Amino acid sequence: MSRTLAVIPARAGSKRVPGKNTRIFAGKPLVQWTLEFACAYQGFDEVLLSTDCEDSAVIASVCGKPVPWMRPPELAGDDAGTVDVVLHALSEYQARGQYFDRVAVLQPTTPFRRTDRWNEAYRLLELGVIAVVGASVACQHPYWTYWIGNMGAMSPCFPGKSTLRSQDLPAAATINGALYWIDVSVLRQARTLTPEGVHAVLLDDALESIDIDTEDDWVHAEQALLAAGVLK
């Protein structure tokens, strides 16, 4: 049986929404939504909150997953990439005699997840897919986007495609941070969560598409919860 490590990257620093991971969102700290899902999902063999934040570590302990080590400073800055954080986690576990075939990444800024989506991702991996990501339908099709040059001059990003009718457009999506799942060997070689050959699980639920990176995102997320009846 393949073993999966679930990594939740939650560093302390956030310039656009200070302290967002521990800030109360819909009745609980934002990061707790993701922790609770990861701890309950049966497809994960181990769950790690990778953090340099003591408050986040306390929340992990409350959820039953004490942080085994704090993230080192060199992986806690603005320049630290998620892949580096995940590879560090895998190395730390390997040093402790624990090995994993797959790794999942759950960004805490996307707090709502559905088990059936992860089950779909698992089935794809079992069929031989090397990596799966969650994706949402693109709000604006890339064929209809333009580069902006000097004095506002516009040029199509995809020449010859900008005049296509909507019914003639190929399906397009944007990656959603709610779901990443990849073979460890592929991650180590490609050093990306979205290597060539990655497949998508479409997340078409409005709550699943919530991604909180700015204060405006926070407000819009709360409005979405009100509309869905989650908040009263």
From TrEMBL:
Q: Which GO terms describe its molecular function?
A: N-acylneuraminate cytidylyltransferase activity
The family database entries (Pfam families) matched by this protein are listed as: CTP_transf_3 (PF02348)
- By its UniProt entry, which InterPro entries does this protein fall under? CMP-NeuNAc_synthase (IPR050793), Cytidylyl_trans (IPR003329), Nucleotide-diphossugar_trans (IPR029044)
CDD domains, alphabetized: CMP-NeuAc_Synthase
Name assigned to this protein: N-acylneuraminate cytidylyltransferase
Origin organism is Metapseudomonas otitidis
